[in-house]
Amino acid sequence: MDKIKCDCGHVNPEGTVLCEACGKPIEGNQHIDGNDHKKLLNMRYEGSARRSKTYTNSIVDKIWSFFSSVKVGVWLIVIALIASALGTIYPQAQYIPPEAISRDPAVYYEATYGLTGKIYYQLGFHELYSSWWYMILLALIGVSLVICSLDRYIPLRRALKKQKPKRHETFIKRQRFFSETDDVTKEEIKRVKENLKQQRYQISEENGHVLAEKGRFSRWGPYVNHIGLIIILIAALLRQTPLLFLDEYVWVREGEQTVIPGTDGEYYIENKKFILETYSEEDGEIYKKALEKQEEMVPKNFQTNAVIYKKKGEAVVGAEPELEVVKETEIRMNEPAKIGNGFTLYQAGYQLNEFHTMSFKVHRTDDKNQEALATFTVNMNDPESIYEFDDGLKVKIDQYYPEYELDNGEPRSVSKFPRNPAFVFLIYPPNETKPEVSFVGIGKNIDPTNENEYKLGIVDFDMRNVSGLTVRKDYTLPVFIVGALIFMIGVIQGMYWQHRRIWIHPKGKGVLLAAHTNKNWHALKQNIEKALANTSLNIVEDQQELDNDVSKQGGES
Amino acid sequence: MSLEQRKAKKAQKMKKRFIFRSIILIVMLAAIVYALVANFNKDKSIYRAGDVAPDFKLEQINSHNELESIQLSDLKGKGVMLNFWATYCKPCEAEMPFMEKLYPEYKEKGIEIVAVNLDVNTLVVDRFIDKYDLTFPILPDHKEQVMDLYKVGQLPSTFFIDESGVIVDKVDGALTLENLEKQFQKILPKK
């Protein structure tokens, strides 16, 4: 009832299409692989029993057979594909621009995109890639991958293990490569076997029936490949834990010290100096020609000279922590610094020429020589409010715009970084309480009243650089590498080897000859031609032309 | 092989298959659950409603306010509006007058505003304070430690913390006067 006994005596599991031992098509199961209307047999998975349709009485078996369907797997992938595409229609919540009306997703999407935006938000597409259902979808693809593989690998291995040299005549006749020879001597068969052995075929025999086989292990390629994929999925899973994976970014200005993000306030970094070196003529002749082609400077080295600190003891966040130097290090591009606890710092970005200090002088407006009455230096990151001088002259900073910009006629700063500093100075002449107003910036020196007695000028400035560093902790990379390696082995295994089989089936005085391979039929034919040389055996013919429908069938997956 | 034996063998085989499949399904289910939980916890590393607000301590620089420094844990018993802002941030500038407008009234009722500033220099902050006549505490976070602690991305970002130190709500982006008052009602200490 549950098992099918073939004429050859082998007992097959239910659902078997071709007898595992002799290959005879099992009646009533031919529709499964679409053999019923074709001349040629579909050799996929050797016609072994899959999907285990009989054992669906328990819930476990039901779940199992659901996931063992390739159709289900393909649909899961299609759904994931469509969902991923939907997530790109509008920006994800984390990419809502800072200048948006509101960064609250509930407001932003509707306000920016109207009704479709509202629907987008309500369906939760604004956080699609981290939504539980998207993650479950990806997980289901993983489950499908595992179960599909197991459900094909196990019966396939069983069928290939159980196969016998003696095959049923129907099986032989319905192979793609087939020939029939009426009169063949034993000598000739012996010679064919010798020739096949020379081509490294493995020969097995049973009552004069011969099976020559090579490259069976290439059949495991897809499954090895899937194991690799599963390991990669596991690695991606492990990336979810901050314990194993962390990726942050930090900007440090020269001379400044800041906490390294992601380290829970454990580590601090001080930027001693950022160095950007470019190629120049001193680098020698060999670069000369290449450099001439470049209009711009060609960077040679990006480097941060940094000091790494570690917090000592416990302290409330914000309170000045007690720090100890872990190491002084030079971080160069492709030469990251390991700072401990699995953290590595990579040189990843820079900003040159941020203003650090600026020196000004005060002179009389009508003085042609602009002789300095007073000079003072402003620290861009910590300017003082008032600068007082011996003769009673006072300069007060009324407004300071680190990155000055005119916004609807109103001056304001667009960031806290002194990239384009501008000041509104109030100059109090000696013994005066009414100040003169002066606006000074890069390339700007405005006297709004045109009646100022005193004028300010920039005499000197000092620039500094900012270094951008990636902070990363990644213990999952080796797992990815192992997965990718196994994946690649599987691909190679399935790509560069083929599973070739040749059957010699005695019939009366003559023989039937059939052959099968999963790919590269041309090479198989060459093997056969070489083996049959100087014998009376007929070369196999490709029966596919007689059965065009079969060509539409793909390979295993 | 008798029929009995064959049946017994089949039953055993099915049992084996059942166990094998169950184990694989359970292992995969465990992996999925782990992935979901891990993902959920990742979100949790960002403090949101329902979490206890982590403690910090910063200097106070607003000369119109009497406090010299603030440690969040010292404010237990009061509702706290923890605001992250900077002078160059337009939406921050927009909500500041609303905060100032409600501050005196709600200070009486037991709410404290803690405005963590992310500018580099204090001069611009001082000028800003003067421009809007702010009287609530302003705390510069020069090393961005508190910003890092609260995983604040873009400014402004505001946490509303109740009297027991639990975050009641988090608002990204500017608040309107109306919204601000609603939020204050939520964190008003019960007497």
Write a short abstract of this structure.
The complex is a heterodimer of chains A (557) and B (191). Chain A is 27% helix and 31% strand.
Tally of extended strands of chain B? 7
Helical run tally of chain B: 5
H/E series of chain B: HEEEHEHEHEEH
Strand content of the residues of chain B, in percent? 15-25%
Kindly name the structural category of chain A: alpha+beta
Point out poorly predicted stretches of chain B. none
| Average of per-residue pLDDT values of chain A | 85
Question: Widest sheet of chain B: strand order?
Answer: 5-4-3-6-7
Distance between the termini of chain B: 85 Å
Tell me the distance between the termini of chain A: 31 Å
Shape of chain A: elongated
Number of beta-strand segments of chain A: 24
Count of individual helical segments of chain A: 11
Largest interface: A-B, 60 and 55 residues
Shape of chain B, please?
Answer: elongated
Give helix % range of chain B. 40-55%
**What integer value in Å does the Rg of chain A equal?**
39 Å
Strand content of chain A: 25-35%
Fold and architecture overview:
- The complex is a heterodimer of chains A (557) and B (191).
- Chain A has 557 residues and is of the alpha+beta class.
- Chain A has 11 helices and 24 strands.
- In chain A, helix 7 (186-198) crosses helix 11 (521-532).
- Chain B is of the alpha/beta class.
- Chain B is 46% helix and 18% strand.
- The longest helix of chain B has 42 residues, at 3-44.
- The termini of chain B are far apart.
- The mean pLDDT of chain B is 85.
- At the A-B interface, helix 1, helix 5, strand 7 and strand 15 of A face helix 1, helix 3 and helix 4 of B.
Give short descriptive properties of this protein:
heterodimer; A: 557 residues; alpha+beta; 6-stranded antiparallel beta sheet; 11 helices; elongated; B: alpha/beta; two-stranded antiparallel ribbon
